[in-house]
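Slide 14.
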Amino acid sequence: MPESMGLLEAIYTTRAIRKFTNEPVPPELLRKVLEAATQAPSGINRQPWRFIILENSKTRRKVADLYRAGYMENRKPDLAEAERNPSVYLAMHLVEAPVLIVVCGLMPPGNRSRIDPLLMTPPGVYAATQNLLLAARAFGLGGTMTTNHRWRESDLRELLGVPEPHEILGIIPLGYPAEKHGPKTRQLVERVTFRDYWDIPITFPLPS
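Slide 15: predicted structure.
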């Protein structure tokens, strides 16, 4: 896919990709999607994002095993649905992604023991993640952001040597898609947007 793909085309056709071919991701493309991630907006230019790239098969296997164990213990899925349920499929097949990107964020100072780390997440980290996925789409790659690692976050932190005050905020499996990008099914803007007050319908164009 050419990198000249238009921004809106990328936005409208980027789907969550969980199935990948065996083709490796070229280092130069990996660097380009990571560079796109770092162009995200950042409050007072703190640039709180950090990325750990897992290409070594043994490390990917250990991370995938922790991910699957936490998922199975807490979500208790019906394994018969693995092929029909994308979330279950990813838990069973995470290791098959050619690259795993562990997304970390530098937490702001404060009483971290009283606030869920996910609620303290610098917004720029998630903006960086979206930049990464859109750039991946432009280069013919695919991926998705998953946060089901949270059930084994402390084990992952130890395995990967993530220091305080950083948090592991998500994992992105990345590779060449074995399923298709394309248009998505979404609700109309008018169904999810209100005017001035909750549940007051909005129409476009807005009155002057």
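Speaker note: The chain has seven helices and four strands.
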